[in-house]
Design goal:
Two copies of one chain form a homodimer. By secondary structure, chain A is mainly alpha-helical. Chain A has two domains: 81 residues, Winged helix-like DNA-binding domain superfamily/Winged helix DNA-binding domain (Arc Repressor Mutant, subunit A); 88 residues. Chain A is 58% helix and 7% strand. In chain A, strands 1-3-2 form a three-stranded antiparallel β-sheet. In chain A, a hairpin with a 7-residue loop joins β2 and β3. In chain A, α1 crosses α4. At the A-B interface, α1, α4, α5, α6 and α7 of A face α1, α4, α5, α6 and α7 of B. Chain A binds a DNA duplex through α2 and α3.
DNA sequence: GGACCCATGTAAATAGTTACATGATTGC
DNA sequence: GCAATCATGTAACTATTTACATGGGTCC
């Protein structure tokens, strides 16, 4: 289960509350595993009862009290074991690609519309990634090693959307070409 | 739920048994949604009781009898509705990328090893994809439109592994450069 | 004789989402 | 007054995986 190790990874450098974590894992920004707050609170309880993490309650005056969690020694050991575990190259699981692979059932115009809609969505996603200071916190990283690796991680995320966009644009132009050449439009003739 | 629509998509052109479908969805080959036979048999029952598909038992002599499923009118309507549904650009969920984004906790040598292992795995995956006649059934497709779209679909799958591989290779060489420059090896001197 | 393909299923566990629930504080 | 942020949780449902279960046929 990746969410366990994702949380442990976050807690290695400093403790966080469930609320903090749920913001990190909310799917916006560059994080390669999303989760809802429900899942995070449940996983935190589980990690706690397995001795991987421990909590401490922080009393607050102007906001509700919070429980912050930190890694135990056992948690650290487990984290480092996981960081050196070989991950399999998993089959791609992608709703749009699944749908795309059956688009040939549809009419030419529907296919073109669906590809154009996807292109717009990808462009929106890329521009929101770029505009929302994607690379901004790299400047605060003092270690060059850490900065390079974090940069590579960010680069992967942007690049994958760019790859899909380029693939789609090229595919769309090829498809339009085929449609225009193979099915020349009938010239509308006046009835009389 | 994508698996429902994935199955319905498969059944549009011709009927299949649960066993046939479980081979299609086994994660090898180019299919953008994997599933186990357990999940397929359960989903088939569900689709059947919802009136989306219907089954027919085929008696066989040299192998066990099988139940083949075909799409009903309701199933077809639902399928075409889904084929025109806008899919969201979802956050990337990738175990390796998750792990990679915390590799900076490790030593230089561990990071290099892990990246090299991943490179090998990706190269294996790509060569097995290419050698196992990935594009072979495109030749039997008579419609140019269908052939182009199926080709694009295959191209996406290969391209995504190629993208990851290139990203990793470039990243690894940059990382090695940084390591060599910032931490010059101490020259081993003879004791006397 | 053992492994692998055909063929279909159930049971149980784990992973993930959506809806429900509460309650104080801050800003418009 | 209404929405948003802070903060934590439960209940119920849906999705997915792993293990269990059976049994004939073919190939080496």
């Amino acid at each position: 289960m990746s969410i366990k190790h994702a949380i442990m990874s976050c807690l290695y450098k400093k403790p966080f509350s469930g609320y903090d974590l749920s913001k990190m894992f909310d799917g916006t920004g560059n994080f390669y595993w999303a989760a809802t707050h429900t899942q995070i609170y449940r996983t935190l309880s589980e990690l706690d009862s397995n001795g991987m993490i421990k909590s401490q309650t922080i009393e607050q005056e102007q906001s509700p009290n919070k429980k912050i969690y930190f890694l135990t020694k056992e948690g650290q050991t487990e984290l480092f074991k996981w960081l050196n575990t070989e991950m399999e190259v998993e089959p791609i699981r992608d709703k749009f690609q699944l749908q795309f692979s059956f688009q040939y059932y549809l009419s030419d115009q529907e296919i073109i519309n669906n590809m154009e809609t996807r292109i717009k969505k990808l462009e929106d996603r890329l521009s929101s990634l770029r505009s929302s200071g994607y690379y901004k916190d790299l400047k605060n990283v003092s270690s060059e090693k850490e900065r390079l690796l974090k940069y590579l991680s960010l680069e992967y995320g942007v690049g994958i959307y760019e790859y899909e966009l380029q693939w789609l644009k090229k595919g769309l132009s090829r498809f339009k070409e085929l449609v225009e050449n193979s099915a020349p439009k009938e010239v509308e003739k006046p009835i009389f």
